[in-house]
Amino acid sequence: MISKKKNNTKFSVLIPDGESNVTMWVVMGLFDIKGIGIYVLSAEDSGLVKRSGKIEHFYYKPRTTSEKWIQNINKIVEKHSIDIVMPIGCIGIETLIGYKNKNILGCEISLIPNIEPFNIANNKSLFANHLEQYDIPQPKTFMYGEGERHDSNLVDFPIILKPSEGEGGGEGIFIFDNAHELHDFYQSEKLDYPYIIQNYIKGYDIDCSVLCKEGKILAHTIQKGTLDGENPFVPKTGVQFLFEQSLYDVVAKLMESLHWTGVAHIDMRFDENDHKFKVIEVNPRFWGSVDASVAMGVNFPYLTCLASFGETFKMPNYLHKEYLNLLGLSKRIKNNILFILKLNYILNYTIVKFFKKDPKPLIGVVRDKFKSVMR
After folding, report:
1. How far, in Å, are 22, 157, 224, 288, 340 from residue 235 at the CA level?
2. Residue 353: CB atoms within 10 Å
3. Among 28-32, 122-126, 164-168, 269-273, which is the least confidently predicted range?
4. What is the DSSP string of 39-75?
5. What single string gives the DSSP state of each residue in 336-356?
6. pTM of this prediction?
7. Residues 300-316: what's their mean pLDDT?
């Protein structure tokens, strides 16, 4: 397909898995560029994006089978002359991987990986084996099957236990300081799923977001958390953008080893003992701080579209500033009321940058919060 952008004309995007919890943040990146028509197909009749005033149409279709989902996509593609379908969550990406070479959709499919690297990235056990095979720094890792128990002599405490599969986001992750705590956990939990044990690294979390094509990084940002969420394992509410060459080198080696195509978000940790950046896991999908990267100058949703159309571009630079989401902004103001006077910063480097363009979702959030308080 010839990129419409080269002809200075508009193009349209369909997000086919709008039930994803990152949909609104991806849409923010798309509407930050004038001329993009945004359509959303969702298996749930709810979410911030449904309230958005920046999308052309929100379609609610409960998802039954993959075949029916593809049929629904094609109906929307035909009705609105959609130029590109861009899945953003693991289920949507995995499903479309099986269809991308069958010419079953009437338009472009955005850059997505092949099934083998996707399965490696989406399974923590397979991923740990891959890191070991390619000598990529990682925590000491042990894999266990359903119902198996960890031998506490294999790795020093503290340790982290997490499911070997899943979309991340901090779900199902536990940390234990000693064998007694781990034993009590085993007594109370069935662990009817495969899981991994890793040694807990003394240091700090740091992440890298990428867009790749055939193992080559086309765009990236590196960000370090400044404000925690509800617990240490959920996304941060404030992130500082920076650059670390040694971290970038590790990520570049990882993406090349996977021959990765599409977006990914790599969770890493700096080890204070050996001063190395170590890979914890990779999320083979869009992530919850897409809006932060956009505000800093790297619009991953838009660049994904351009790269999918075959356009080339220079590696974009990004600002080295702190970005605050809605919760992070409220925390900052609560801790220092004078922060509200930093109007230019708030308008450009917080979630307000996007909600000022599309206020309906924020109004909905405030309204819902008010209703819950009044009950």
Report:
1. 12, 24, 11, 7, 24
2. 18
3. 164-168
4. EEEESSS-SHHHH-SS-SEEEE-----HHHHHHHHHH
5. -GGGGG-HHHHHHHBTHHHHT
6. 0.89
7. 96
